[in-house]
Amino acid sequence: MSDRMAPRTEIRLAGEGGQGMILAGIILAEAASIYDGKMAVQTQSYGPEARGGASKSEVVIADGEIDHPEVLAADVVVTLSQEAYEKYAKSVRVGGLLIVDDEKVCGITQTDAIRIPISRIAFGTTGKSITANTVALGVLVGLTGVVSRPAIEKAVAARAPRGTEEMNRRALAAGFAEAEKVKRSEIRTP
């Protein structure tokens, strides 16, 4: 899928407050700008509730100057909650990529959505559901190649709280492994 990424890639990461999607956006932007030498801008917004309401992080990554910092037509949308899915799933452009945590979202109407039990994978890998954002980053980067694997690994390690580096490394690796499964199933499916 990495061949689908354009010189300017617009990504929307959405979930509930407290799921870490804002942090995921910051990490992704840092991976692009600090470790891969690309241009990146990250913006965020929260619902009226600090925890539990929908929150989103938007990241624009480009090879050159970014003239507009907001997502206009998302190339990739990742949703980790029902409310986030309802608010943002339709914002993915035609031909874009919609990644949905099918453990947290029911009634997925987009037939081309990539359904992954992100929260279950996070808990199964690390014993902590809070690492779902890191699993989601592994899936996103593994499917798109929008940043290099070494760049996202370094950015996650740099942002991980002291003592959680190994746990976050395992969560990221689990996301990459899931992306590989998706790619293999696409190759088999005509």
Question: How would you characterize the overall build of this protein?
Answer:
The structure is a single chain. The chain is an alpha/beta fold and 190 residues long. The chain is built from six helices and six strands, in the order βαβββαββαααα. It has a six-stranded mixed beta sheet, sandwiched between helices. Strand 2 and strand 3 form a beta hairpin. It is globular.
Uncertain segments: 1-5
Total DSSP helices: 6
Biggest sheet strand order reads 2-3-1-4-5-6
| Major β-sheet profile | 6 strands, mixed
Derived structural class = alpha/beta
**How big is the Rg?**
15 Å
The proportion of strand residues reads: 15-25%
Distance between the termini: 15 Å
Helix proportion = 40-55%
Instruction: Write down how many β-strands occur, each being a DSSP E stretch of 2 or more residues.
Output: 6
Q: H/E order of the elements?
A: EHEEEHEEHHHH
Q: Tell me, rounded to a whole number, the average pLDDT.
A: 91
Give the overall shape, derived from the CA principal axes. globular
Properties at a glance:
6 strands, 6-stranded mixed beta sheet, alpha/beta
